[in-house]
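Subject: for your reference before the review

Hello V.,

The reviewers asked for a structural picture of the protein, and I figured it would be easier to keep everything in one thread rather than splitting it across files. Below is the amino acid sequence we used in the manuscript, unchanged from the supplementary table.
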Amino acid sequence: MAHYTITCKCGHEHTYQLFGKMKERERKLAWLETQVCPECEAKNRAKSREDKTSKAQAEAEEKGLPTLVGSEKQVAWAMSIRYDFLRALDRLEPLATTAEARQMMDKWSGLIKAQTSARWFIDNRDNLTTDNKRAILNSFIQIFEK
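And here is what came back from the structure prediction:
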């Protein structure tokens, strides 16, 4: 076990505690020098979340979506979940050529657009995640291809 202070890609110095064989430590140190420090990484993630929340807020206002109810953090997170799912539905809209496909799109869109509880989006995020979106999208595609 040893402590190493390195200068990260962002220019900040950071101390890391590394374990293992010297060859692996050297490899890890070389890689760490190409990365930003943990503090900058946290700032970058926060900025990314803020940007996404701003985009989600702008789109919600543009589409006339209801304001979500919850704590500030819940609302920001829920807006992001809603934004992602509605964007996935928007990408499918041109494919909705049959009445059945259109009806399914309208059902999902209406369900999402009617929700005002931030908690609902957070509690159901696993049903609206990328994997489940893929399953939903695949079922849409099967209907669209009929």
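For the response letter, the relevant points are probably these. The chain has two domains: 2-36, 49-144. Helices lie at 22-32, 38-63, 72-92, 99-114, 118-123, 130-144.

Happy to draft the paragraph if you're swamped.

O.
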